[in-house]
Design goal:
DeoR-like_C; transcription; alpha/beta; repressor; WH-like_DNA-bd_sf; WH_DNA-bd_sf; seven-stranded parallel β-sheet
């Protein structure tokens, strides 16, 4: 007798159910316990137990009603600087296009923002305030930049200054535009970071800036990190890659003011 798809689902072992749930997370970014329970013909209690186990293993973050895929951005900056270099350069070109002459730019740490520092136009009379020593190096000795490096304890994971000194300096700035580094972004859960101190500094950057822009590789979209920075609606410009599915793009466009797509 031919075995139906439903027979196959009904006969799944617990480990197989977890792999299927993880596959759904990777496909969609977010899963709902009620929908998974219906698909797997099991109880929501069982699904929540699987989600709890996946969260404990670092694969997802529990949210109300289900879970979000965990952001892959928790790696050390030294690793992230070597990853997706060409993709980040494409995002940086689009990000730099929104900059206007004589602006005060607040540039957060992060590998994509280092690419933005390189892409910023020469001779535009820009004042760039950054907590990233690497980004600072990309602008030194180039014409048209007044670079201000924020001080404080430098985080090896973020490759940027953190702590009370950096926070105080950011709170004294009034920037026209901030390029915010984001570990994760979801339309419902907002912008998030992996470290509480880092999230506090990012919140101060948002408060200090007239406009907020985020350039983000696709794998960090529709993902979660532990510490909330800002709602997605606080993002004035979101720069994404061209491989973002239409359904995800629609959700992002519904909450962010302007979504721009980098060339592939």
């Amino acid at each position: 007798m031919q075995r139906t798809r439903q027979d196959a689902v009904d006969g799944l072992l617990p480990d197989q159910r977890e792999r299927l749930i993880l596959d759904r997370l990777r496909q969609h970014g977010r899963v709902l316990a009620s929908e998974l329970a219906a698909e797997l013909h099991t109880s929501e209690h069982t699904v929540r137990r699987h989600l709890r186990d996946l969260a404990s293993a670092g694969h997802c973050k529990r949210v109300y009603g289900g879970a979000l895929l965990a952001s892959p951005a928790g790696e050390a900056a030294s690793t992230r600087m070597r990853e997706a270099v060409d993709r980040k350069a494409s995002l940086a070109v689009v990000a730099a296009s929104i900059v206007r002459p004589k602006q005060v730019i607040l540039l957060d740490a992060g590998s994509t923002n280092v690419a933005i520092a390189q892409a910023l136009p020469d001779n535009a009379d820009l004042t760039v305030v950054t907590n990233s020593p690497e980004a600072c190096m990309r602008m030194l000795e180039r014409p048209g930049f007044d670079v201000i490096l924020i001080g404080g304890r430098v985080s090896a994971r973020a490759a940027g200054a953190m702590g009370a000194t950096a926070l105080l300096q950011v709170q004294q700035i009034r920037a026209d535009l901030c390029f915010l580094g984001a570990c994760a972004l979801d339309p419902d859960e907002g912008v998030a970071a992996f470290d509480a101190e880092e999230a506090e500094l990012k919140r101060a950057m948002v408060s200090a800036s007239g406009l907020v822009a985020i350039a983000m590789t696709s794998e960090k979209l529709m993902t979660a990190a532990p510490f909330v920075v800002a709602p997605a609606s606080a993002v004035d410009y979101l720069i994404v890659e061209s491989d973002v599915p239409a359904e995800r793009m629609s959700r992002l466009e519904a909450v962010c003011d302007t979504v721009m797509v980098a060339a592939s």
